[in-house]
Each structure stands twice: as C-alpha cells, then as structure tokens.
Amino acid sequence: MKMIPIGKYKDILDILPILCVDIIARNPKGEYLLIKRANEPKKGRWWVIGGRVLKGETLAQAVIRKAKQETGIKIKKMRPVGYFELVKGVNPLGRESKYHTISVVFAIDINDKQPIILDNQSTEYKYAKKLPSDFPVISF
Fold first, then answer.
1. N- to C-terminal Cα separation, the chain
2. What is the spatial distance between Cα 94 and Cα 41, in angstroms, rounded to a whole number?
3. Region 62-81 average pLDDT
4. Residues 41, 121 contacting (CB under 8 angstroms)
C-alpha cells in the first residue's frame, strides 16, 4: 500500500471527506465484536472494525481487507445496512478539526470460535450486547 506523505495527508483531511467502511460483526449469540481503538479518531474508545477505502478498491474489497487486517477474520458474506457520518472531531493526526468521514456500514456474521488477531490499530477486543451509543447508523 502506497503511503501518503504526512503534509499531503493533512491537506487532504482539511479539504476532503474521507470514504470509509465500518463493519458490524455479530456472533451467533447476537453479540457485537468491538475493538478498542489505539489511534484517532475515537482513540481509547470501543468501536467497530473499519477504515478507509483505498483508491481502486471496491467497498466489498475494503470490508474484506479491513476485517482481515484488523482482526484476522476472513469473511465471505456481507450486506450493506446503512451509513455513518462523522463531520467533526479529532482526525487521525490527533488534530481537532472539521474532520469529515463517510462510512458505508456493512453487517457480517462471524463464528465466535474463530480466533481474533488484532493489528496495531487496536489494543483489545470484546463481544458486547450493544453497539457504541455514538455509532448512529442511518439505515438505507
């Protein structure tokens, strides 16, 4: 993956919305897989799997990549369920700004026996009965 130089990335964050995917992963007990974020935005908060869509990547490819990258989960089926928009907050560089992301939200079913292997974007994981209260998915 080609990295954007920090200066350019700062400029991009200041002027353009960022397209992301967020993944609602649910086990057979109806519990949601949440990760504790190690980085901004939402650093230190329990959140769902997800991240930026890369140029040339479809939304489905981004879902598969982010699930595998962040948790080691391999998925085959997904369904779009809505979107989530963050218009203001702390951006990935730790700056308070008019950070704007648009996340297309997908739901996946997972086997809770599958091992979870976190990358450096998260510090821990848990299964919870509810999604984070500040994750207001707008349904299609």
1. 31
2. 8
3. 95
4. no
Instruction: Say how far apart CA 114 and CA 33 lie, in whole Å.
Output: 12
pLDDT at 64 over 80: yes
In order of their start, the domains of the chain are 23-139 (3.90.79.10)
Is pTM beyond 0.70 here? yes
User: Alpha helices, DSSP H only, in 37-122?
Assistant: 59-71
Which structure tokens are listed for 14?
Answer: 């200041």
Cα–Cα dist 96/90, whole Å: 4
Residue 78 three-state SS: coil
36 in helix, strand or coil? strand
* 3-state SS assignment for residue 10: helix
pLDDT tens, 23-54?
999 999 999 999 999 987 788 999 999 999 99
